[in-house]
Amino acid sequence: MSQIIDGKKLAEEIKEQLRPVPHHGGLGVIMIGENPASTIYVGQKEKLTKELNIPFEVLKLTEWDDWLETKEDIKDFCERKDLAGIIVQLPLPPGIHAEGILDLIPIDKDVDGLKKCSSFIPATARGVMYALKSTGTLMTGKHAVILGRSKLVGRPLIDLLLAENCTVTIAHSYTQDLPSITKTADILISAVGKPSIVNGDMVKEGVIAIDVGITRTEAGLKGDLVFDEIAKKANFITPVPGGIGPLTVAFLMANILGK
Ligand code: NAP
């Protein structure tokens, strides 16, 4: 049976490393449209900023008729001196593209690390690396397989895992014969957002299994991994909820504070 990586406990560790928080610029969140999941995620970010005494503001926009006018509002928000970090809460409503909004965020405030040449590492990717390091496993020479190639998770992980001397494979929706790849993983990171996309037959004994995926279902929050099956074979596994989620919020705070 595997050891469960406790994301909540690790997130507490990070928070302690951030304290005491000096007087600091705040976090500004741009929210567009109504999305119940986004409301919850923004609420989690607000809670932690409050706990750490970091100012917090939301710019809430409904879908617009006049982009030029809205653009000015976003620009003014992004340029506020009292906000050290600005993020766009994803996903955006259909037909609205993140790029146009990201262009308005100054590079030194892009705490989600989504702009080209950003100096910030996306918080989820930092959270995954922290979870891996918490296992005490030497990563050098291990085969790390990432499912999902988004800018927020999969792509930054390629560089971070290479820096640990892993051999890295990245899979996406066009990948063929996924089980033949996942079975060779010493470290498996799934960031797809499809519940049960990875089951116990798709992993080898002793794998470290990291579940980034979060999907809201009628039965509650579900990760990408069939937890019970994989937990029987893995050395370490992250749960959903309580795994990478709390680490992501904690590392967002670290990014805002420049740590
Ligand atoms: P995304 O932008 O939608 O990316 C999903 C990725 O999965 C894409 O690269 C897609 O491939 C790939 N994919 C789809 N079907 C696949 C399949 N059958 N086999 C292999 N890859 C497949 O999503 P995201 O923003 O990265 O988020 C992914 C998941 O992580 C979501 O559930 C999200 O809620 C969750 N998430 C959690 C946290 C956290 O804090 N725990 C943070 C961020 C995201 P293509 O590129 O070919 O389309």
From TrEMBL:
Record-annotated residues binding NADP(+)?
A: 148-150, 214
| UniProt keyword annotations, A-Z | Amino-acid biosynthesis, Histidine biosynthesis, Hydrolase, Methionine biosynthesis, Multifunctional enzyme, NADP, One-carbon metabolism, Oxidoreductase, Purine biosynthesis
Q: What pathway is this protein a component of?
A: One-carbon metabolism; tetrahydrofolate interconversion
Outline the extent of the Tetrahydrofolate dehydrogenase/cyclohydrolase NAD(P)-binding domain. 122-257
Query: What is any one of the record's Gene Ontology cellular component terms?
Result: cytosol
Single Gene Ontology BP term?
L-histidine biosynthetic process
- Gene Ontology MF term list: methenyltetrahydrofolate cyclohydrolase activity; methylenetetrahydrofolate dehydrogenase (NADP+) activity
Known catalytic reactions: (6R)-5,10-methenyltetrahydrofolate + H2O = (6R)-10-formyltetrahydrofolate + H(+); (6R)-5,10-methylene-5,6,7,8-tetrahydrofolate + NADP(+) = (6R)-5,10-methenyltetrahydrofolate + NADPH
Q: Enumerate the spans annotated as Tetrahydrofolate dehydrogenase/cyclohydrolase catalytic domain.
A: 5-112
Q: Where on the tree of life does the source sit, at the highest rank?
A: Bacteria
Residue spans making up a coiled coil are: none
Q: Which family does it belong to?
A: Belongs to the tetrahydrofolate dehydrogenase/cyclohydrolase family.
Q: Which PANTHER family match?
A: C-1-TETRAHYDROFOLATE SYNTHASE, CYTOPLASMIC (PTHR48099:SF5), C-1-TETRAHYDROFOLATE SYNTHASE, CYTOPLASMIC-RELATED (PTHR48099)
Q: How does it assemble?
A: Homodimer.
Question: What is the recorded function of this protein according to its Swiss-Prot or TrEMBL entry?
Answer: Catalyzes the oxidation of 5,10-methylenetetrahydrofolate to 5,10-methenyltetrahydrofolate and then the hydrolysis of 5,10-methenyltetrahydrofolate to 10-formyltetrahydrofolate.
Name of the featured protein: Bifunctional protein FolD
Q: Which organism is it from?
A: Candidatus Abawacabacteria bacterium RBG_16_42_10
Encoding gene (name): folD
